[in-house]
Design goal:
CATH superfamily: NCX, central ion-binding region
Number of helices: 11
CATH topology: A middle domain of Talin 1
Radius of gyration: 20 Å
Number of domains: 1
Strand content: under 5%
Structural class: mainly alpha
Order of helices and strands: HHHHHEHHHHEHH
CATH class: Mainly Alpha
Helix content: over 70%
Strand order of the largest sheet: 1-2
Distance between the termini: 20 Å
Shape: globular
Largest sheet: 2 strands, antiparallel
Length: about 325
Amino acid sequence: MSWPLLLHFLFFSIALLALSKGADYFVTYSSRMAKRFGISDMVVGLTITSIGTSLPELAASISAAIKDHTPVIIGNVVGSNIANIGLILGLAAMIHPFFTEKKLHFRDSMVMLGSTVLFLLFTWNGSFELWEGLVFLILYAAYMVQIIKSEVDPNQPGGLEDKHKLPFIWKPFLWEAFVTALSCLAVGFGANYLINEAIVLSQQMGVSESVIGLTLIAVGTSLPELLVSVSSVRQGKAEMVIGNILGSNIANLLLILGASSMINVLQVSKSDVLIMTPIMILFTLLGVGFIFSKRDIAKVQGGFLMALYSGFVVLAFFQGWS
């Protein structure tokens, strides 16, 4: 491997770090600001935190749309969704087998599966256009409203408010606002340079932009979910692992593709339509199948998912080089 290529990998990693840490600080400090206005932990979790965990993918995709490198966006979304199930769910099961409450995840599993199939139908003609993105954004808004309605008890007044809100004190509030603004700049900087370096890497390695999105960007932007899931499964919080994966996959499809298509028409290659998207559907079906299985999601299933994911990465690079 040449020194220039190693240098670009280093720049790519620095941009990814700025993007991930910026998103992390954004969630932490904007959540504190929300609590000072009396917004409950539940609503903060369903809005700021859920969108914040998808902020790296969202920022990278918007940057790619502005720069007219839309194959990176498709690769990022498809690759992230496959990584969430093949890599994250697989690794979590390998570390500690777990059992899930099926009824808790029925709605989200069906939304994820439906969104994945709808994505295939919309991109079958080789593009994902503005009106299709608008449909996805409307579906995501409806999904978020449904989540909030299901979590708030209508018989309990003040369900959206936090009884233990943080006191509104100007000095810490201004500091939180400053860090939140700074984190947004870090996200913007990271996303911009991540896409720049991704394009350079694709050219120097001789692979398509879509492959870089499917692999390097997808895995890199999924690292926060990976760390959270590993920590959660070690603490016996299996439902958090599943909820994290389902929520992330839904946001990747409905929110990120929807928002990106408002900026630019997303071009989808034949290999993405005929090979990569069906693979994403296969992983989605496997994930839903394991979630609703009567048995634990154990090391055997985890090893199977990780082996499939390894095969997918090899296939992605083979397709990109050929």
